[in-house]
C-alpha cells in the first residue's frame, strides 16, 4: 500500500513539474510575441523578454538556450493559434456561410492582427539575420500546409485538387504583400477593401476553379 502511495505521489510531482515547465515556456513565448510587436525584432533583446515575462535570465536560458530557439517557438505558437482560431471561427459560422471565399476572408483577418504582423516582422528581419533566416525559412511553406489541411477539412470537394496547395501559396503571398504595404501608412482598412475585391473575383470564378483539371 505504501509503495503504491509513493508511486502515485511521484507521478503527481512529475505531472506538476511538467505543468510548471509548460506554463513557464508559454509565458516566455507570449512575452516574446509582445516584445516583437512593440519593439520590432531588431530592437528586442532577451532583457526585454525577461522583464516582460517577469522571470529570471536563468529561467529563460533553461527553457530557451538561444534567441533563435525562443523565436522559433514563438513562430510555431503563432501558427498553432492561427489553425485553432480558424477552426473555431469557421465552425461557429452558419453552414450556408462556410464558403471558400469566406474562409479566405478569415485568413486575411489573421494578417490584420498583432500575431500576423509579428510573423511579417520576423520574415522581413530574417533577410539580414542568418540565424533568424534559418528559423523562419520553413514558415511560409508551413502556413500553406496548414491552410491546405484546414481547407481540405471544411471543403472535401477541394481536397483532391492538385492546384489547392499552389493556390493557397499564391493567396498567402498576396495577403503578405498587402499587409506589408499597409505598414508604413497604417491604411489597414484600405487593404481590406482590396482583399474584398479579390474575394469577389474568387467567388465568381469558384465554379471554374473547382472544375479545373490541369491534365
Automatic annotation (TrEMBL):
Residues 22-82 form the HTH tetR-type domain. Residues 45-64 bind DNA. Transmembrane segments: none annotated. GO terms for molecular function: DNA-binding transcription factor activity; transcription cis-regulatory region binding. It holds the Pfam family TetR_N. InterPro entries: Homeodomain-like_sf, HTH-type_TetR-like_transc_reg, HTH_TetR. Keywords: DNA-binding. This is Transcriptional regulator, TetR family. It comes from Actinokineospora spheciospongiae.
